C-alpha cells in the first residue's frame, strides 16, 4: 500500500497553470501533487560563446529550490556561494532533455533559458521541472512564431518526465517524498511524445535491481508520461 | 499623472494570501500590484553563535529574486556565486525592521528566518517583503503560542513598509517600476502599528530634495501603511 | 551627558589632510575625532561597460576597513574572500552621494573611483568617508581642469555627511563609537552645500522614533555639515 | 566499423596496476585502452557529521582530471575555484556505486575516500574510475581485515561499470573518445558481481532511442563487466 | 648611477613612527623612502586549532595593499574575492621571519597577528613590512611584560629585512620602484640582530647571477639591516 | 647519519620517463626517490592579454598535488575552491625558473603551460617539478622545431633545481620528507646548465644560519644539479 493510497500505476494530480508570471516569454506553475515548480522561459537574441556564428540556437536550464520548499529549511545556495552537485546535475538533465526535442538550427541564433524554481517540494521536482519546461518553452516558441521571428516550428515533439521506483518491493509510478526517501531503487525516465526515450536512469538506493524491474518501471513511466502529455497539450492550447 | 492612473496618495491593490506553502511554519504570498513576493517563516530551535546562552531569540531575513522576476532575465545569484550588494542591503533592512517589533527575550532561544523570494517584480519588492514578513512571522508565532512553546506573545505591534518618491515633481505613494526608474528621489518608510518609525530612508536619484518633501513623503507613507496594517490583520486572522 | 563631554550639537574635531599619498590624482586623510579614513580619488580614462559610448562619466566608491582599525581585530575581507553586506551597503551609499553632486556628462567618458580605507574607527566611518571623498574628488577634478582635460567643472556643489542619533533620550550630533553602540536610533544625513538633502536615513536600533525626532536630527545634521563644508573648502584650497 | 577496429561487443584492453602509489591504504592505476585513472583509497577513522554516533561507516569519492589529460588543455578546477557540474555528477555516481556493495554498519565508524584522478582521457573515465575504485577499496579493506581492525568483510560483492552506446546505428561496448563524441545515444551501466544492476543510465545525445536498444546495451554491458570482474579479482589477488 | 642619486650601498631615508593607531596592542608606520606601511600587532588569547593545548603561542602575518598605493589603481582583493599569489607569498614570508626570532613556548597560548597594510608603494614593501612588524611586535610584547601577562621576554633578538639587486650591472641596496622594475636580479635578505640569516632569497629577473654576486648582495644587506636595527631600537625605546 | 643512509652529498635515485602521457606536446614522469611528479607541456597559439601584440611568447606553470600523494590525505584544492598560498608560491617559482632560460621573443606569440602534478610526495616536489618541466618543455619545443613552427631554438640552456638543508647540523643534498620536516634550515637552488643561478632561496626553519652555511649548501646544489642535467639530457635525447 502506498502512503498516499494511490494505486501502483497512479500518478498524483498534475496541473499546469500557464502564464503564471507576466515578464517571461513563457511561464507555467506545474504541480505534481504537492510538488510545485515555477518554470519560466526567457528568450535572448544571442547564443553562448561556443555557438556564435554557427547558425543555430541553444536551450539551457537552471534549477533552484527556495530555502523553505522542503520540510526543514535548507541553506540558500546564493548565500553559500555555490550550487550543490545535486542542483547542477538536475539542471544539466533538464537542459539535455529539452534540447532532445528541439531542432537547434531552426531556432536560429537565440538562446532560451528555462528557469525551474521549486516553490514547494514533495518528491519529483526534476521530473515536474522537465514536464513544465516543455510547456514554458512551447508558449515562448509560439510567441516567436506568432511574431514571425520564427517561420518554422523548431519543437519536434513533446517531452515529459516522471519518476518511478521500487517501493516495498512493488514498482510504483511518480514517487512522492515519503516513497522517494525509502525506495529500494528509483529513477527518472524522460520520454517523448512520439514514443522514444531521451533518458533512462535508474539507481539502486538500498536494494539492487534487475533487468525485469528496469523494464517494468519503464512501462510505468510510459503510463505516467502519456497523462502528462495530455495535460501539457491542454495547458499549451494545442 | 501617474502611468498607472493612480492618485498620488493611492496604493496599488495589495493582497496577502496566507499559508501559500505547506512546509513553513508561516507563509504568505504578498502582492503589491504586480509585485509578488513569497515569504516563509522558518522556526529553528537554536540561535546563531553570537547569541548562544543569552536567553534570547533572533529574527533574520534572506531575500532573493527569481531570475525572470524582472523585465529582462537577471543572473541567478547562486550561479554567480555571490549575493549582490543590493540583495544584502535589502535583507539586512528586512531583518532589522522585523526585530524592531519583536521582544527577543520573550521569543526564547530560537531563531525565525524570513525568506522573501520575489516571484514577480514591479517596484517595491523590499517594502512588500517587510509587510509580508510580518504576516508570516505572525502566523509562525501564533503556532508557537498555540502549541504552548511560547506563553507570552513576543510581537509587540505590527510593522509595514511602503515606498514613496517624487515623481515628475509630485510626491507619490507606492511607486511601481515605471515610476521608480524615473523618480527624482525615492525612499522607503518602515512604520509600526502604534504610530512610530522604524526606518526612514530617502535618496536623491536625479534631483535633490528638501525637508518639506521628506515630511510630505513620510505623511504619504502613513496613509499607505495604515492600509497595509488593515490587510495584514485580516490575513493573520486578527 | 555625552561620554566625550561634548554638547549635543557639537561635532568632534574634524580635519582634512590633503595630498596624504602621492600616486593618486586626489587624496586626503580625513579625521572625525579618532575616526581616520584615507580617501584616494583615481581617474581612469574609461567607463564601466554599461556606460560605454554614452558620452558621460561615472563616479564610484569602494570602502574597506583595516583589520585592526577597530577595538578588536576583525577578519580581513580579502582573506575571507568576500565583502560583508555592511561594506557593500556603505560603498553603495558613498558612490550615490558623490554622484548626486557631479554632472556626469560634463565629466566626459572617464571614471573616478573613490577608495575609502578606514585606518582607525571610532564611529562615523561612512560619514567621514563621504565628507573626505568630496575633497579627494575636488582635488582630482581640479587637476583635470588645470591640465585642460576638462574645460567645465562637473562638480555642482559640496556634499558632506554626518551621523546623528538619539542617545539616552537626547538627540545628538556626530556619534562616536560609545554613543553609536548604545543609541536608541541613529542615522546618517548626506547634505549638499546649497542646502538640499541627498540622503536621509534613520534607523531604530533599540527604540522607535517619531517624526519630530527625525526633524530634530536633520537640523543637527545641518549644523554639523556646515562645519564640514567650511573645512572641506579650506582643505581643497577654495 | 568502429574507428578502433574493435568488434561491437569488444572491450578495449583493460588493466589494473595495483599499489601504484605507496602512501594510500589502497591504490591502483586502471587503464581502459588509453584512458588511465589513478585511484587511491584513503581510510580515516572518523565519519562525516551527519553519521556521527550512528555506528556505521561511509564510502565517498572525489574525481578530478589533470588539465592536460585531454586533447586540448582544460582549465585546472583548483585555479578556477570550483568543480564543474560534470565533475560533481561523476563523483556522486562513483560514491553511490561503491556504497551499493558495501555493508556500511560492518565498516564501523570510519570513512573511505576514493580519489579518482584521470591521468589520460580517451572516453569512459567514469566507468574506469568506478571499476578501479573497487580494486583500491578491496586492497584497503583487506588491510583492515589483516590488521584485525575489521573482523567481518563489509564488501558484499564486486562492482564494475562500462559505457555503451549507439554508434552509427550499431550498439557498441566501451566507447572511446572518438565514438563517444559522435554517438547517437550513450550511457553507463554499473553492475555487480552477483548479476544485479546498481545504476543504468542512458541518454540520447543526437538520436532518441527505444526500449529494445536499452536492453541490447544492457546486455553488452554484462559482457564488458564480466571481463572487468575477472581482471579486478586478479588485481586484488582473489 | 641610481635614479635617486643614491650610492650603491645607501639606504633610502627610513623612519618608524610608533603608536600610529590607538586600538592595536602595537602599531607603527614604517617608511622606506616613499614606501609607507602601517603595521599593527594584535594580541589574541587563543591559538590556531593545530596548536591548541601544546603550551606555545603563534605569530602570524597578513599583508595587503590599498588599491591606490601604486602608480595605477589595482583591484581591491576583497572585491575580487581572493588574495593574489604574490600577497600570500609575502604574508607567509613575514610570518616566518618574525617567528624565527620569537620563542613560541615563552609566548604562552596566545597569537599575535601582524597586519601589514601598504599605504603607499615605491618598492620594498615586503622588507619594510618585516622591519616594521618587529617594532609593532616589540611594543605589543612590552605591554604584555608590563602587565605581567608575560614574565619572560619571548623575543630573542631583532629581525629586519632589506632588498638588494643588480641594477645595470651594479649591486645596489634597498631598491626603489624604478630600480626594482628594471633590475637584472633582485632579492630579499632577512637578518637578525645577532648576525644570522633568517632568509636569503635572490631571483634572476632578466639576467642570471653567480655566487660572487650573491655574496656581494648579502654584504650590502648587512649594511642596510644594521641601519634598520638602530632605527628599530630607537622607535621601540630600547 | 641520514635516515635513508645516503652520504651528505648524495642525491636520491632520479629518473625521467619521457612521453608518459600522449596528448600533451611534451610530458615526463620525473622521480626524485619516492617523489613522483607528472609534468606536461601544453602549447597554445596565443598569449595572455598583457602580452598580446608584443611579438613574444610566455611560459607559465601550474602546480597541484593529488589528495593522497602525501602520508595523510589532504583536501582537494578544487573542492575547497581555492589554491593554497603554498601552491601559488610554488607555481610562481616554477614559471619564473623556466622563463629564465627561454628567449621569449624567439618563442613567438605562443604560450607553453607546464602542469606539474604530484602523484606521490616525499620531499622536494618543487625541485622535481622544475627539473621535470625543463624536459617536458624541451620535448615540446623540439616538436615545434621539427614541424618548422619555430626556426630558432628559444631554449638557451638547461635549468634544474634541488633542495639542500642543514639536517642535524650537517649540510645535506636533496632532502626527503623525513629530513625536510626536521631540518634546521632548508632551501632550494635553481641553477642553469651554463653555471649560473636563477634562484637561491634559503630559510631558517628552526635554527638560523650564516653565510658560510649558505655557500656550502650552494655548492652541494651544484653537485646535485650536475647529476640532474645529465639525466635531463638523456631523457630529452640530447
From TrEMBL, chains A, B, C, D, E, F:
GO BP term, example: rRNA 3'-end processing
Top-level enzyme category: transferase
PROSITE patterns in alphabetical order: RIBONUCLEASE_PH (PS01277)
InterPro entries registered for this protein in UniProt: ExoRNase_PH_dom1 (IPR001247), ExoRNase_PH_dom2 (IPR015847), ExoRNase_PH_dom2_sf (IPR036345), PNPase/RNase_PH_dom_sf (IPR027408), Ribosomal_Su5_D2-typ_SF (IPR020568), RNase_PH (IPR050080), RNase_PH_bac-type (IPR002381), RNase_PH_CS (IPR018336)
The enzyme's E.C. designation: 2.7.7.56
UniProt domain Exoribonuclease phosphorolytic: residue ranges: 10-140, 158-222
Domain of life per record: Bacteria
Positions that bind phosphate: 86, 124-126
Reaction(s) the record says it catalyses: tRNA(n+1) + phosphate = tRNA(n) + a ribonucleoside 5'-diphosphate
GO molecular function: 3'-5'-RNA exonuclease activity; tRNA binding; tRNA nucleotidyltransferase activity
UniProtKB keywords: Nucleotidyltransferase, RNA-binding, rRNA processing, Transferase, tRNA processing, tRNA-binding
NCBIfam families listed in its UniProt record: RNasePH
Function (record text): Phosphorolytic 3'-5' exoribonuclease that plays an important role in tRNA 3'-end maturation. Removes nucleotide residues following the 3'-CCA terminus of tRNAs; can also add nucleotides to the ends of RNA molecules by using nucleoside diphosphates as substrates, but this may not be physiologically important. Probably plays a role in initiation of 16S rRNA degradation (leading to ribosome degradation) during starvation.
Family, per entry: Belongs to the RNase PH family.
Subunit structure: Homohexameric ring arranged as a trimer of dimers.
Protein name: Ribonuclease PH
Gene transcribed to yield this protein: rph
Amino acid at each position: 500500500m502506498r502512503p498516499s493510497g494511490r494505486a501502483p500505476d497512479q500518478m498524483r494530480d498534475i496541473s499546469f497553470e500557464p502564464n503564471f508570471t507576466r515578464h517571461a516569454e513563457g511561464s507555467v506553475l506545474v504541480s505534481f501533487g504537492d510538488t510545485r515548480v515555477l518554470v519560466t522561459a526567457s528568450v535572448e537574441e544571442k547564443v553562448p560563446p561556443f555557438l556564435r556564428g554557427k547558425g543555430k540556437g541553444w536551450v539551457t536550464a537552471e534549477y533552484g529550490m527556495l530555502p523553505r520548499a522542503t520540510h526543514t529549511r535548507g541553506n540558500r545556495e546564493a548565500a553559500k556561494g555555490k550550487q550543490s552537485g545535486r542542483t547542477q546535475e538536475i539542471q544539466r538533465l533538464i537542459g539535455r532533455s529539452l534540447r532532445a526535442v528541439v531542432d537547434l538550427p531552426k531556432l536560429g541564433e537565440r538562446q532560451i533559458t528555462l528557469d525551474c524554481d521549486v516553490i514547494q517540494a514533495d518528491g519529483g521536482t526534476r521530473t515536474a521541472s522537465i514536464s513544465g519546461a516543455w510547456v514554458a518553452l512551447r508558449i515562448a516558441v509560439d510567441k516567436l512564431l506568432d511574431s514571425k521571428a520564427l517561420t518554422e516550428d523548431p519543437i519536434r515533439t513533446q517531452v515529459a518526465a516522471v519518476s518511478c521506483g521500487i517501493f516495498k518491493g512493488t514498482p510504483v509510478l511518480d514517487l512522492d517524498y515519503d516513497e522517494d526517501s525509502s525506495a529500494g531503487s528509483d529513477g527518472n525516465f524522460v520520454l517523448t511524445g512520439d514514443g522514444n526515450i531521451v533518458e533512462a536512469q535508474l539507481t539502486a538506493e538500498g536494494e539492487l535491481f534487475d533487468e525485469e524491474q528496469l523494464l517494468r518501471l519503464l512501462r510505468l513511466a510510459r503510463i505516467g508520461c502519456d497523462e502528462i502529455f495530455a495535460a501539457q497539450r491542454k495547458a499549451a492550447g494545442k
